[in-house]
Amino acid sequence: MPGPRLAAKDVQKAFGATLALAGVSFAIEPGRVHALIGENGAGKSTLMSILAGATVPDAGELTLDGAAFRPHTPEAARRAGVAMVHQELSLCPHLSVEENITLGDEPARFGFVQRAEMRRRAVAALGRVSAASTRLSADARVGDLPPSAQQLVEIARALALPKCRVLILDEPTSSLGAGDVDQLFSVIRSVCAEGMAVIYISHFLEEIHRIADDFTVLRDGETVGTGALGDVTTGAIVEMMVGRTVAQLFPRSPRTAGEVVIAAKDVTGAVNPQGVSFVLRRGEVLGLAGLVGSGRTELLRCLFGLDGMKKGELRVLGISGFRAPPLRIAQGVGFLSEDRKGEGLATTLSLAENLTLSRTRSLGPAGIVLPRRRAAAAQKWMRALAIRARGADQPVGELSGGNQQKVALARLLHQDADVYLLDEPTRGIDVGSKAQIYELIDGLAAAGKAVLVVSSYLPELLGICDRIAVMRRGHLGPARPAAELDERAVLMEATGA
Amino acid sequence: MSDGGARPPDGEHEKAGLGDVAAANSATWAGWKSRTLAVPWFGPLAALALVYLLFALLVPDTFARSTNLVTMARQTVVVGIASVGMTMVIVAGGIDLSVGSSVALATVVIARALNAGAGTFMAVTMGIAVCALAGVLVGAAIAFGRITPFVISLGAMTILRGTAKGLAREQKIDADARGLDGLLGVLPADKRWMVFPPGVWLFAVIAALFVAILRYTRFGRHVFAIGSNERTARLCGIRVEAVKIGVYAISGLLAGVAGVMEFATLTVGDPTDSVGLELEVIAAAVIGGASLLGGEGSVIGSVVGASLMTVIKTGSTHLGLPNWVEEVVTGGIIVTAVALDRLRHRRP
C-alpha cells in the first residue's frame, strides 16, 4: 500500500505563551474524506493555517506524498497542490465565474489575458463540481450567485490548480440548505473518486458520518483520537471532543404554555413570507424548520420590523400591525441575527458595548451612558453565561465564535426581552457552547418567556422545541408537537417530497 | 429578568475569571503600558511633543517663545473646530467634504448680515444656522437617499461654494467686524490674564464638550455603533437615520463656528476662502486615529492632529524652509500616522 497523501507528526505551534498546537499527528489517505473535528479553540484553525501556508509550525514534521511539506506562504501551499476552501468565501463578487476560477493564475500571453484558454480551464473545473444539468455559467457574475453556487465556484477554483492533491473544506455546509448539502456531498465523492484527498472540517457530526471515511479529533491542541469512522459512534466522538460525557445535550425543564404573545394571520412580506399564520405562547419553544431560502429568516425579520410587511394581521404582545425595531425592543421583543459578523455584532466595539447596545437607557441618567455601569452590566452576563474574554472592554471580534454568539444572546437577556426570535442560534459554534445555549433556551421557556427558533440543524430543533412548523417556499405548515415528528418527516415536508 | 435561563454550567468557573488577570495587571508597569497603548491618541500626542521639541531645539530664540504658542493655538482654531465635527462624521462611517465651502459661506453670510445692519450676535447666529441647515440637508440626503456620503457631500461642497459666491456677487465683502476680530486677535493689556484669546478658549470648550458627548451619551455611543456596523445598530433599535442627520448637522454647525473664527481673522466675507480646508480637517482626524471605515476616532486625537499640522507649518516657517518642504512633511506624517495605527491594532 502506498504511503499517505498528507501526514503530520507531532506538529507544534505556540503563539506567545499559549500553546495552540501541542502535538498533532494524523495521516490522510488519497481518495478518502478525512474529517477534522474539535471544539473551537481545539487548534483546528491553527492546523489549517499551517497546511494552507499562512503559519509556520515551531516543531514537527509534515509530509506530502512522502516529501517534506513546509509551505511558507499560501502561494507555496497552493503550488504544492494543497487548496483550502474557507468558511467565509474569498471570491471577488464583481468578477465573473471564470475570472474567479483562474484568479492569480490567468492564462496570458505578453500580459494579455487569453479569454479562450481561461474559458476552457474554467469549464473543465466547473464540470468536476456540477452535474451537466445544473452547470454553472462561466460568464455569471459571482456576486449574483446564491451562496451554494459560490461555494462550488470556490471549490472549482481549488480544483483548477495544476497539481491539486489535497482539498481542505472548512465548515462547507454552514450556510447551505439540505438540498445544497446533497449536491456538495456528491461533488466531494466524485473528486475523491479521482484520487483527491479531502480534509473536511465541520461541527455537524451527523454530516461527518455521512461523508467522511476517517477522522481525527483535536482537543487542546492535541490529537485525542484518529481512525476510521466506521469503528466509532457519534457519542464516542463527542466524548473525545469535550473530554467529558454530554449526558443531556437537550435539557427539558417543565414548561407550561401560557398566553399568546404573537398571533400572525396571513402575514405576507415583499417576497417571503407568503400568507403565514401561527401563534406563539409564553412558556414554549416553537421551531421553524425548512430549507435555507424558504423564508424563515424573512418571517422573523418581519416580526421584528426589519423587513417590511405587505399584508396580513399581526399582533405582538398586545399591539397590532407592523412596527419598527425600536418599538419592538421597547415591547420586549429580542431578535438574534443569523449573520453574526455582518449584522449581529459590531465586531470592532467592545463586548460591553455590544452586549448593552439595545438597552442603554438603564446605564445612566437622561441620555448618558456611564462606562462603569455598562461594564458592570456586561460582567453580570459574562459570569451568567460563562463568556470567556479578557474583560468587558475586549473587542468582541477577538472572541471565539461560541463566545461571540453568547454575547449576542446576552444582549437579548440584558434587554430583558419576553419574546425571543432566534435565527440559527448555534450556527458555526462548538459543542460546548451549543450545550450552554440549549440550556439557556430551556431556562427561558421554563421561566415563561416565548421562544421562536429558526434552525437548519434538525436534531437541534427536535431536541429543544415543543412544537415545530415547517416552512416551504414562503408558506408555513401547521405547528405540530415535536414529540410526534422525526428528522425524516420534517425533511420530507421541507423539500415537498 | 429572572435568572431562569442563565445558570453558569459546571466546569466553566475557572475560565470565567480571566478578567481578574487584567485587573491585577493594572497596577504594574506592563498594565500601565498596555493601557496607555490602548489610548488611540497617545501616539499622535507623543509625535506632537517630539515635533515641538525638535523645532524648539532648532530655532530656540523664536519658535520656543510662549507668544509663539499662543499664535499657534490661534492658527489651529479653524481647522480644530471643524475637525471636531468631522471626527463625529468619520466615526459614524461617513465623510463631509463640504466643510471648506461651509466656512467660506459662513464668512459671507456674516459679512452681509453685518453690512445690512444686523447686530454681532444676530450675524454670527445666521452664519452658523445656514451651515447647520446645510448639514441637516446633507444628512437627510445621506440617511434617506441611501447615496454614499462622499458623493452627497461632494455635491454639497460645490453647491455651497456656488451659493457663497452668488451671495457675495463673486467678490470679497468688507465689513466692520464689530468686536468679532477680538475672538482671535491679540489680547488687550487688561485681558492678558486670559493667556489665550477667547476663540481659543471656545475651541477648548467645544472640544471638551464633544469628547464627553461621544464618550458618555447614548447619542455618542450610537454614532460609534453605526460606524462600526450599521446593520447591528438597526438591529438594536437605534434610529439610524436620525443619528446620521444629527451627525451631519453637528458637522455643519461646527463648520459654521469655524467660519465665525475665520471671519474673525479675515474680517471680510470671502467666498473663495478655505478651498481645500476639508482635506486638512480630514487629515487632522485621520492623524488623530480616526478610521475612514468608521467606528474609530477620537476628538482629542483630532485636536492633536490639527495642532501637529500647525506646529509643522509654523516650525518650517521659523526655520526658513520653503512651503513645499512643509507640505511633503505633513503628507508623510498622515501616512505614517495611519501605518502606526495599523501596527497598534495588530497587537494581540
Please provide a brief summary of the model.
The complex is a heterodimer of chains A (497) and B (348). Chain A is α/β, with parallel strands linked by helices and 497 residues long. Chain A has 17 helices and 23 strands.
Describe the structure.
Chain A has 497 residues and is an alpha/beta fold. Chain A has two domains: 6-242, Rossmann fold, CATH 3.40.50.300; 260-495, P-loop containing nucleotide triphosphate hydrolases (Rossmann fold), CATH 3.40.50. Chain A has 17 helices and 23 strands. The relative contact order of chain A is 0.11. The model of chain A has no long low-confidence stretch (mean pLDDT 87). Chain B is an all-alpha fold and 348 residues long. Chain B has helices at residues 18-25, 29-38, 42-58, 66-91, 99-115, 120-145, 149-167, 198-216, 218-228, 230-235, 240-266, 277-287, 299-319, 323-346; strands spanning 173-174, 268-269. Classes of the chains: A alpha/beta (497), B mainly alpha (348). Chains A and B meet through helix 10, helix 11, helix 13 and helix 15 of A and helix 1, helix 9 and helix 10 of B.
**Assembly status:** heterodimer
The DSSP helix count of chain B reads: 14
Q: What top-tier CATH class of chain B fits best?
A: Mainly Alpha
What is the number of helical segments of chain A per DSSP (H or I, 4+ residues)?
17
Helix and strand succession of chain B? HHHHHHHEHHHHEHHH
Task: Look up the CATH topology of chain B.
Answer: ABC transporter involved in vitamin B12 uptake, BtuC
Name the helicity range of chain A: 25-40%
Beta-strand residue fraction of chain B: under 5%
